[in-house]
Design goal:
Elements: no helix or strand
Length: about 60
């Protein structure tokens, strides 16, 4: 049987990361709350790392 094609690697544009916009209200919440479309100023250092399979003897 033929092998299926390998999936393409994820790109930065594939992620749905929050953005920062001037003038958006900043919600004040108490406790654990899920915020949709949060206004985030810094999201961290995003790095893509390939997944490597480790093989070993059985």
């Amino acid at each position: 049987a033929p092998k299926p094609p390998a999936p393409k690697p994820a790109e930065l544009s594939d992620l749905d990361a929050p953005t920062a916009e001037e003038g958006r209200p900043i919600p004040v919440v108490f406790g654990a709350v899920l915020l949709r479309g949060a206004n985030v100023v810094w999201y961290g250092d995003l790095e893509a790392e390939p997944i490597k399979k480790k093989g070993g003897k059985k």
